[in-house]
């Protein structure tokens, strides 16, 4: 009896200690999570006045050591530009004694300048430039890293390092050197020819890359990417679009050699459209020679434009930012059509019409209704829509709801369609989609469809729009899982729709609204210079013929508008 009681006591003791061992870290983590917002409030003013780009950190983030007192950081901050870390009590002292990256400085010789070393917190997979042994392996503040070329060196090897001049490292061809901006600032006459002369010291293959990130897009990776790109590049060439609009960010292009700049847009398709509109504004100002090439790093929910250009269906950190920069340099140039969508409301002919730019697609019907409902709820609770998976789940719920309600029923009786001036007889539809690109609805190839039907693949540079119809939300779902084809209505250079009665949901590139009786005219606007990743695979890897046809080197096809027979749902 005593033995059984003793065993039971030991079991309960083990259970108690196990529970404590599990609960204590969880409670500490929760406590730190609740304290973190409170801690940020008093530090905001300090961060705003600082020369460093401070961000809060603690024990539960990456283990770091204070660059001032050398102690492990429990609660403190790190600079995402130079990598300096400081304990909460040492932040003000770090501001005084430790310098951040200088965006402008005079070069020492041959376009190079001295290394700017920061001690401690070097990457674990780094190696000493002198002895070639691994750095950062000791649990203390040790070893050095150059904030520009990312060279690492041991404490003992620093004094014997043969070369003290920094060449900006692997990414010297994309970094805007601080000495270049120093020389530009000294110019009395700012002319493109002068910029080209100054760029000679940067090397023959110099292709500066500007990074424009939207921190509110999709899966909220924008803040992380901003910090990683500021670490690798000159902070002056990395922009947060929530703080500075692209129209102002792109003015840096006018201080660089014409035709040399590439822009990496980190965001969804809406962010890309925002940047392309800013580039159109540059054209209106007569700055055509400074127009950059645009590459996409997809952070949004659908990312159909990114998918069509071979940039993938979504970025979640699966490749490093170093590889992202390499991909930008290796991408090919392709022209992409942009379209003008003009909406003239019935009875308001003397008012200025609504004019929008379209890169992806225009639609009226169930998919626009889902986008409208999603947009309305995201505006009310933006913090809830911070994950790509959650966003797609919400779209699915709204689509399921519309299958039952059918708010867009009998669209064919309420709308008229003209393709290049020819009237098109519509079957019983609930939605019409006008596409410029190959992908729609988060990765579905809408025009090519499935089966043995010989429909040519779409192109982004042929000056043609593909027009299809859908029978409802359930039909949209069938198309996305390749159980059905859309109703192909034809291809055209100009599309005109007349909404005769009632209000209908509409969208252009994911920006929805409810529209009353009106006339919608879609015409060609201009072409944008985009970067195409031919080696990248999109979601439809098996569709090899389609991907080959979208290569930018293929011949342009300029087929006339033709109305296709409707296809029943399989």
Short account of what is shown:
30% of the residues lie in helices and 22% in strands. The relative contact order is 0.08.
Compute the number of helices: 15
Q: Structural class of the helices, strands and pairings?
A: alpha+beta
Biggest sheet: strands side by side, in what order? 14-13-26-23-16-17
Strand content: 15-25%
* Range of helix content: 25-40%
Largest sheet, if any?
A: 6 strands, antiparallel
Low-confidence stretches: 536-570
User: Compute the gyration radius: what is it?
Assistant: 28 Å
Gross geometry: globular
On the 0 to 100 scale, the average pLDDT is 83
Number of strands: 26
Amino-to-carboxy terminus distance: 73 Å
Main location: cytoplasm
GO biological process, one term: phospholipase C-activating G protein-coupled receptor signaling pathway
Family: Belongs to the eukaryotic diacylglycerol kinase family.
Pathway: Lipid metabolism; glycerolipid metabolism; Glycerolipid metabolism
List key phrases describing it.
570 residues, alpha+beta, six-stranded antiparallel sheet, disordered C terminus
What does this molecule look like?
By secondary structure, the protein is of the alpha+beta class. Helix content is 30%, strand content 22%. It is built from 15 helices and 26 strands. Helix 11 (366-380) crosses helix 12 (388-405). The longest helix is centred in the first third of the chain and has 48 residues, at 2-49. The chain is globular and about 80 Å long. 41% of the residues are buried. Residues 536-570 have low confidence and may be disordered.
